[in-house]
Amino acid sequence: MTKNTIRSLFLVFSIFSCSLVMAEVEDIESIESNSHFYIGVTLGKASSEETFHNVFTLMGNEYSKKDDNTALGLYAGYNFADKWSLEGGVIFVSHLNKRPSPQPIEEVYLTVFTFTPIIYIDLNDDLSLFVKAGLGVLIYSEDYHKHNDIFSLGSGDSWAGGGLALGAGIEMSVSSDIEFRFGYDYIKAELEADEENHLQNLTTIDEEFSLISLSFHYKF
């Protein structure tokens, strides 16, 4: 586990602890009557930038690439008295640009996991602002295809790491059960290579990820 991941986990724990303290000062009956579980889907535009360190040049130069792709995701959480939530989610981004590589890259994709407390600021009965901060875990993956029927590389290589996940947006209730959300998310992390990666892919990647999204969820 990297130092950045440890710092991120400590920050998430601190935020979570503060959220629990805030919940304690709420009226218990109000919390029970207004709290609910929810699950939703996300569609958005994801922007990512990867900086590869010393992976495929004899001189050891860095190489960076940028992508703008469609992102799909799922999320679920528990809302406490319409004041704050604990939420987890996953975002999938496929068809990323391929980098120059001695490996026969077939497909490149990014998977993003988040766990964040969310604080709501009511504007009126149906509209509220929200801010969130927590842990984001990113997994950058490359799938390879066979050179021929005799010699084959492994199925692919991957890099993973954690960082601070930040977000903000606006949420609107359209019925007693359905809410829409427009939001922005940002994560920056250092991704470490999986120990089973090919030799030239054992160094780190600096990853910046942002997402502009439209989501809706159902309240139970």
TrEMBL record:
Coiled coil: none annotated. Residues 1-23 form the signal peptide. Keywords: Signal. Gene3D superfamilies: 2.40.160.20. It comes from the Bacteria. Residues 21-220 form the Outer membrane protein beta-barrel domain. This is Outer membrane beta-barrel protein. It comes from Thalassotalea fonticola. The lineage of its organism: Bacteria, Pseudomonadati, Pseudomonadota, Gammaproteobacteria, Alteromonadales.
